[in-house]
Structures are given as structure tokens and as C-alpha cells.
């Protein structure tokens, strides 16, 4: 949770409220759980477990990367602002992922 403030300006106050609230509500996996969202959006099918086992050496490792950087890249790839190299490969799969889900996944990945 200490890493939340740096990305605060990229996400809505409501999202921050949700993130802070979730652990106090229940210990059960929630839709807001980064790992669950990572699986639900099929990120693992290319980036592997915890973002650390990409299926190709041409694909990046994501675990342990700065959350703000990860979030920026996710949004830029989805929106077509980043079009280098294999970005189009990912874009086809993440077109409908929200900024909020990306932010939660980015925070989760940064702790791997
Ligand atoms: C179909 C395969 C595929 C899927 C599914 C996919 N990605 Fe990617 N992703 C890639 C590839 C390939 C790249 C490298 C793009 C490039 O070459 O510039 C990438 C790049 C990224 C980057 C930028 C990393 C960096 O160091 O700049 C992030 C962050 C990322 N993916 C997150 C995700 C997340 C989160 C999901 C799920 C919502 C996801 N990806 C789903 C293939 C995929």
C-alpha cells in the first residue's frame, strides 16, 4: 500500500478508495485483486506467471517493474499511442481493459 501515492494522479480517487478498502472488508479473493484481474484478462497467456515467464524472449518481463511505468505502457499499448515492435500483438487482446483494472494489475505486478 505504501506504493499507492505515486500513481494516485493517474487513477480516480474512487479507485484508490476501493484499493484501500478491499483488504479490510475480507481476505477472500476479490475482483479488485490484481492477480485475479491478471488472470481474467489473459495477461498470463503471454507474460506468464507473475509476469515473470513470458512465452517468448521477444516478450517483456513485467514483475518487479515500477507500477507507474507499467500502467503508462498498458494504456499506451491499448490506445495505440505505443506502436513499436510487438505492441500490436498485445493490443488485440487488451482493447477493452479499463484504466482501473490496468492500475490494479500494475500495482500487483510491481510487487512481484
Ligand atoms: C497476445 C499476447 C499478450 C497479451 C495477452 C498481453 N500482452 Fe502485454 N505485451 C505483449 C507483448 C508482445 C509486449 C511487448 C510489446 C513490444 O514489443 O513493444 C507486451 C508489453 C507489455 C507491457 C510493456 C512492458 C514494458 O516493459 O514496456 C506491459 C506493461 C504489458 N504488456 C502488460 C500486459 C497486461 C497487464 C496484459 C493483460 C491485461 C497484457 N500485457 C496482455 C503481449 C501480450
Characterise this structure:
This protein is mainly α and 112 residues long. The protein has 7 helices and no strands. Helix 3 (34-40) packs across helix 7 (99-110), helix 5 (67-79) crosses helix 6 and helix 5 packs antiparallel against helix 7. The two termini are 14 Å apart. Heme C binds next to helix 4, helix 5 and helix 6.
Q: What fold name goes in the CATH topology slot?
A: Cytochrome Bc1 Complex, Chain D, domain 2
Shape: globular
SSE arrangement, N to C: HHHHHHH
Taking Cα atoms only, what radius of gyration do you get, to the nearest Å? 14 Å
| Helix content, binned percent | 40-55%
Helix/strand-derived category reads mainly alpha
- Please work out how many helical segments DSSP would assign: 7
Domain count: 1
Overall pLDDT: 87
CATH secondary-structure class? Mainly Alpha
Low-confidence runs: none
* Residues in β-strands, percent: under 5%
CATH architecture heading = Orthogonal Bundle
Give a quick account of the main beta sheet: strands, pairing sense, barrel closure. Answer: none
Distance between the termini: 14 Å
The CATH superfamily is Cytochrome c-like domain
Blueprint of the fold:
Layout lengths: L3 H4 L5 H13 L8 H7 L3 H4 L19 H13 L7 H8 L4 H12 L2
The protein binds heme C.
The site of heme C has 23 residues, from α4, α5 and α6.
Properties at a glance:
single chain, about 110 residues, mainly alpha, Cytochrome Bc1 Complex, Chain D, domain 2, 7 helices, about 55% helix, binds heme C
